Amino acid sequence: MTRLLGLDVGDKTIGVAVSDELGWTAQGLETIKRQSKEKDLARLQEWIAKYQVGAIVVGLPKNMNGTIGPRAEMCQSFAQFLQERTSLPVHMWDERLTTMAAERMLISADVSRQKRKNVIDKMAATLILQGYMDAKSR
């Protein structure tokens, strides 16, 4: 089993998570502050090399009715860019409720608003990756 990299791609940040070697659990790594596609790619390639990642899972923020809006199109275009530049398979994963779920978990854990802002994307990436792995193992 090769490790997977999970990404929650936004306009300003990219939440990053990685799977364990067995593909059972996802751990949050970091929230990248976006600068440019090239710099984002360079940082992701460091994680890919460090964990010998075999595939990437990118969250696809569909609208609640299942349609693809501007944010989802941006994620698809970034996923295609990653696939071309890393030569790794890139899978899209419906992430409609992950950021809200991450926010609820952090609030229930009594995490301050400032701390939530810093970890929400990394946590959303963890939930995206965990959801993908859970669905694949069924």
From TrEMBL:
Protein keywords: Cytoplasm, Hydrolase, Nuclease, Ribosome biogenesis
Molecular function per GO: hydrolase activity, acting on ester bonds; nuclease activity
EC number: 3.1.-.-
Top-level taxon of the source organism: Bacteria
Record Pfam families: RuvX (PF03652)
Residue ranges constituting the YqgF/RNase H-like domain according to the UniProt record: 2-102
One of the record's GO cellular component terms: cytosol
Localisation per UniProt entry: Cytoplasm
GO BP annotations, alphabetical order: rRNA 5'-end processing
Physiological role: Could be a nuclease involved in processing of the 5'-end of pre-16S rRNA.
Family designation: Belongs to the YqgF HJR family.
PANTHER family for the chain: POLYNUCLEOTIDYL TRANSFERASE, RIBONUCLEASE H-LIKE SUPERFAMILY PROTEIN
Protein's name according to its UniProt entry: Putative pre-16S rRNA nuclease
